[in-house]
Each structure stands twice: as C-alpha cells, then as structure tokens.
Amino acid sequence: MLNSTRGWLLAALTATSFLAACRKDEAPSADPAPYCELANRIVRPDGSAYVITNDPPSIRSAAVLGTGALKLELVSSTTVLHIDIDAAQLKHRDSALRGGELVGTYAWKSFDRPNDPAVVHYQFRWDGVTSVFPFSETTPQLTGNLTITAYDAKRHLISGRYELGAPNQLNPLPGSVAMFPLVTIRVYGKFDNVKVAI
Fold it and tell me: Keywords of this protein's UniProt record, alphabetized (predicted)?
C-alpha cells in the first residue's frame, strides 16, 4: 500500500513538473495597453492661463537601434508634440535599446543649449489655425525635462513623463493675440507602456 501511494505521489509530481515546463514554453502574454496624457497651458504675462486638457492622445514612437536615437510623437485634437532624443550624445550608442539604458532624464535642447539631447517641436491647432513652434531651434531657453522612468527591453515598452516651458512665444490663441501677443507655452503629461518600433 505504501509503495502504491508513493507511486501515485511520484506520478503526480512528475505531471506537475511537466505542466510547469509546458507553461514556460507558452507564448508571452500580450503587451499592456498604452496610455498617455497631454495638456497645454497658455500663460499670459499677467499670470492668468488658458488650460487645454486633451482627451488621451494617440502616440507613435520609433527608434534606431544602431544609434540609440528615440522618436516620440503625441497627437491630440489640438496639439502635435514631436520629441527626438539623440541618445548617442549621452553615450548610450548601440546598447541603449538592449540594456534599458534609455531610463533617465533628458534636458530640452534650445538655442542657447545646443548640445542637450531632447529636441522638441510643437504644433497647436485652434479655430482652424495651426501654429508651428520649432522650440529647440528658435527658443533661447526651455524649462522642464523629458524623463523616461521605465524601459522593458524585452517588449520594447517605455514609460515616462514630460514637462516643457517655452517663454516669449507668439500667442497661438487667435482671439487674444492683440491683447497678449507674447505668452509662455507649457506642455506636460505622461506616457505608459508605449511600444518602441525598432
């Protein structure tokens, strides 16, 4: 009887081990759903602000494995935000997308700081008018950063947040240009589980 029980126990343990091994070979689970937020704040010289909170925007990304460069584009009903990170300047090079080295804080490149790594361009649409702002090429100083908080090297998913302040910009709100010709444009939000297309 003892041998019989021992035999059943051994068979059960073998079957359990076999099933566990099979589960390891199963296809990986689906990627978590991406999510991002994008908000604009047009700040007038008197300190008052017009806040535009968009519905969750769509986001596209791409990366060049050979250089570690990363491109993000967030698109909403009013705003298009282009971000390019030249990770090669930060010595990430070929391993940036393999070893998770993209995690970190990236300063915005501006006219006065041409060697900072994150290039940002901004488009704002309102009442049928599109205003284009090549911030990194035309603005002397930008405030804020892009921060990548997580990078899943196996799934190629990134998460992070961004905050951008661009002072002394032409007012993109057509109805208030005459009263407030120059404003500070602030753009901020976050992104989670965004697929990096390699």
Answer: Signal
Range of the domain at 161: 33-195
| Measured CA distances, 148 to 73, 86, 105 (Å) | 15, 14, 6
Q: Can you spell out the DSSP letters for 130-166?
A: EEEE-HHHH-S--B-EEEEEEEETTTTEEEEEEEEEE
Q: What is the pTM of this model?
A: 0.75
Q: Establish if 17 belongs to a structural domain.
A: no
* Mean pLDDT taken over the chain: 78
Looking at per-residue pLDDT, the higher value among 18 and 121 belongs to 121
163 in any annotated domain? yes
| Residue 86 covered by a domain | yes
